[in-house]
Write a structure and sequence with these properties.
The complex is a heterotrimer of chains A (250), B (249) and C (241). Chain B has 249 residues and is mainly alpha-helical. Chain B has a single domain, classed as MetI-like (MetI-like fold, Orthogonal Bundle), CATH 1.10.3720. Helix content of chain B is 79%, strand content 0%. Chain B has twelve helices and no strands. In chain C, helix 2 packs across helix 5, helix 5 packs across helix 7 and helix 7 packs antiparallel against helix 9. Classes of the chains: A alpha/beta (250), B mainly alpha (249), C mainly alpha (241). Chains in contact: A-B, B-C. At the B-C interface, helix 3, helix 4, helix 8, helix 9 and helix 10 of B face helix 3, helix 4, helix 7 and helix 9 of C.
Chain lengths: 250, 249, 241
């Protein structure tokens, strides 16, 4: 349902994505892992058109665009099929928690205020923040902000949710609550692509792992196979840094 | 002590009746300043080679040259330019001083405001725009609903103090012959040497003006910046969950 | 078109004539800067003291000065104050105009200075002073060696702007008849019966422009010197990111 072919992107003269292909099926939870600077985040941002790729094709649910010649209109249309959860939350500072979720529903999806409100409340209930509807982001903890970010993404009813290192800006004690919300979302059957450094978590919730290095995909496969029997040397070297025994020994 | 109360009773209403002129200069100049400030700020972002240098020179002129000198330069320069273009036309010499006051003060403050706007826009985190794009908003929607409301909060305190200084700078118009409160006051004072009384009256009027405007702006700052100063929304923005489900039970 | 229309070639000569009056502008600026700083220091100390009354007084003063146009302040003190003193039986006619102006400009700038001193002092982290005490410095040493330099670094950019503001403010002195840059300009215009007004004012504008340029340069140099530690820290943070 989401396929990328031959995506290339460079910043100035530095190539960040060197023509990689990726395909995601409906209901997949794909974890993209790899060392910093490998292009994971850029890949995600290109799918959301926050970064314009230089070359390649992107297809989501039968709609396909050439990334080189894509028009503004196409970008707006494609963006509606995806939603993004940012590393540093990026909640709208001038909007309340509820408004953060309803904003796009009203402005972009042209829903009525009360309808948008209903959707938002049910989403915020799912992330456990129905008591913070009228709070402003500045007065929430990082974990709470990120949960609002997730609710905002889910409320758009996207075909794919993109999560860009959703827990790496959080204080350690707040990571747990956020991960459990993501776990919950993953189980509900929404397609997700998640860039993460939490290897344990990736192993637990993803059914497919993509390992990137130096702007390309080194290895990908079903989660269990990937972690238990990695094939490439680079993958083995990377995974050796994490202690995953706990999870797979269960 | 010779405090001429009789004079005060006579002069106060007379001076006060020119307050609308002072306020008219203030507001016209402020509107011009906001418009030109926004325009200059937007032009600056474009980074067009020659335009950029012109803006930089203009900004440094506004910063370095006393407002009064700017006012004189404008008054004597503009008619010459008009004559240069239409040699026979007397139009340039017929423009009243108040117009020069408004344009000089307006452009001068516009230059400062463009810097305030620029800084305010720069202070908004890139993530705010990106988040808006990611949920499908257009550039215009993002600007109007996300960026501008936040930039306004950053800009407002500076705009306030600039506006308050504008109120006072309108008194310079007296020197170039505009009939506003200061010049009317000076004339009255000179007639009977009632300096102390006159300038106390003028002080009072200016103080009250800046107090009132300061208050208005502060209320505005609080309202626009609610998301910064308050933990949660109140009033109209307060959302209550509709109770229909509970009723159905 | 007559050759009389506009003569840019006489501007250099006018600049030379006007700049003869620069010493007075400089004296007015420097003297009111010193006096203004002293007044501001007093106000800032009052504003930082705990009793509400003194804080209220300091705030009231700051608001009052900020609310009155300098032109009105000049007239009020130069023309109104002697009238007031005369009523009390004191003759003020012997006081020099320039003394009036120094006091007036000092008052006019003191509110901004006081506010700047207060906010800069408060911007220095409390821990800095405490750390100085902790390693055995006296309160005085700690303030002088640790807190003050840091506060100064915070204040410098605004301080530079205020000095430029004061420098420009002195141009209003001509209304009481002193011959500073502006006063000299008006005299030159009167001598020529107003025939060279544009050129003369342009010459004056050029002088202010150039002098402000010099002031800004000096300020930039001071900023680089005083903020060294901070900048390196900030750069380090940026590099770490």
């Amino acid at each position: 349902m989401l396929t990328i072919t031959g995506i290339k992107k460079s910043f100035g003269k530095t190539p960040v994505l060197r023509g990689l292909d990726l395909s995601v099926d409906k209901g997949d939870v794909v974890a993209v892992i790899g060392p910093s600077g490998s292009g994971k985040t850029t890949l995600l941002r290109c799918i959301n058109f926050l970064e314009r790729a230089d070359e390649g094709r992107l297809t989501i649910c039968g709609q396909s665009v050439d990334l080189k010649t894509v028009t503004k209109k196409e970008i707006y249309r494609m963006r509606r099929k995806t939603a993004m959860v940012f590393q540093n939350y990026c909640l709208f500072n001038n909007k309340t928690v509820l408004e953060n979720v309803t904003e796009a529903l009203i402005i972009v999806h042209k829903k009525s205020k009360s309808e948008a409100g209903d959707i938002a409340v049910s989403m915020l209930r799912k992330v456990g923040l129905e008591d913070k509807l009228n709070a402003y982001p500045a007065f929430l903890s990082g974990g709470q902000q990120q949960r609002v970010g997730i609710a905002r993404a889910m409320a758009q009813c996207p075909d794919v949710i993109l999560l860009d290192e959703p827990t790496s800006a959080l204080d350690p004690e707040l990571v747990g609550e956020t991960l459990s919300v993501i776990r919950h979302v993953a189980k509900s059957g929404i397609t997700m692509i998640i860039v993460t450094h939490e290897m344990q978590f990736a192993a637990e919730i993803a059914n497919k792992i993509v390992f990137m290095d130096d702007g390309g995909i080194v290895e990908q496969g079903a989660s269990r196979d990937f972690f238990l029997s990695p094939k490439e040397d680079r993958t083995i070297a990377f995974l050796a840094r994490f202690n995953l025994g706990n999870y797979y020994s269960i | 002590m010779s405090f001429n109360l009789d004079y005060v009773q006579r002069a106060f209403p007379q001076i006060l009746s020119y307050l609308p002129v002072t306020l008219a200069i203030t507001f016209s100049a402020e509107i011009l300043a906001l418009l030109s400030g926004l325009g200059i700020a937007m032009l600056k972002r474009r980074k067009i080679p020659v335009v950029r240098q012109i803006i930089a020179v203009f900004a440094s002129y506004c910063r370095a040259v006393p407002t009064l000198v700017q006012l004189f330069v404008a008054i004597f320069l503009f008619p010459k330019i008009v004559t240069l273009i239409y040699p026979a036309d007397e139009f340039g010499t017929l423009i009243p001083g108040i117009v020069y006051a408004v344009i000089t003060l307006g452009m001068n403050h516009g230059s400062f405001i463009s810097e305030i706007f620029g800084a305010a826009f720069d202070s908004i985190d890139n993530g705010q725009t990106e988040a808006a794009y990611s949920v499908g908003m257009t550039k215009f929607q993002t600007l109007k609903r996300i960026v501008l409301p936040q930039a306004a909060v950053v800009a407002l305190p500076n705009l306030t103090s600039l506006f308050l200084s504008l109120v006072q700078e309108t008194s310079l118009a007296a020197i170039v012959g505009v009939r506003e409160i200061t010049s009317v006051g000076i004339n009255l004072a000179d007639l009977g040497y009632d300096f102390l009384e006159t300038y106390i009256i003028l002080t009072l009027i200016y103080e009250v003006c800046s107090f009132v405007f300061g208050r208005i702006f502060r209320t505005l700052e609080r309202r626009v910046g609610a998301f910064k100063y308050r933990a949660a929304a109140s009033g109209k923005r307060l959302y209550r969950i509709p109770v229909k489900e509970e009723n159905a039970q | 078109m007559s050759t009389d229309f506009f003569k840019p070639e006489i501007i250099p000569e006018l600049v030379w004539k006007i700049i003869q009056a620069f010493p007075l502008t400089l004296i007015l600026t420097v003297c009111s800067l010193i006096l203004g700083s002293l007044i501001a220091l007093g106000i800032a100390v009052l504003a930082l003291r705990s009793p509400k009354v003194t804080r209220g007084m300091a705030n009231g003063y700051i608001h009052f000065i900020r609310g009155i146009p300098t032109l009105i302040l000049i007239y009020l003190l130069y023309l109104g104050f002697p009238q007031f003193m005369k009523g009390l039986g004191v003759d003020m006619s012997g006081v020099d105009k320039r003394v009036y102006l120094v006091v007036i400009f000092a008052l006019a700038i003191s509110a901004n200075f006081a506010e700047l001193m207060r906010s800069s002092y408060l911007s220095v982290d409390k821990g800095q002073g405490e750390a100085a005490l902790a390693i055995g410095m006296t309160a005085r040493q700690g303030f002088k060696r640790i807190v003050l330099p840091q506060a100064l670094a915070v204040a410098l950019p605004s301080l530079g702007n205020y000095v430029i503001m004061l420098f420009k403010l002195t141009s209003l002195g001509f209304v009481v008849g002193v011959v500073d840059l502006m006063g000299k300009t008006r005299i030159l215009i009167n001598i020529t019966y107003g025939s060279r007004r544009l050129e003369t004012y342009l010459a004056l504008a050029i002088i202010y422009w150039a002098l402000c340029f010099v002031l800004e340069r000096i300020n930039k140099l001071l900023i680089t010197r005083y903020t060294r530690g901070r900048r390196e820290l900030a750069d380090g943070k940026a590099a770490a990111k």
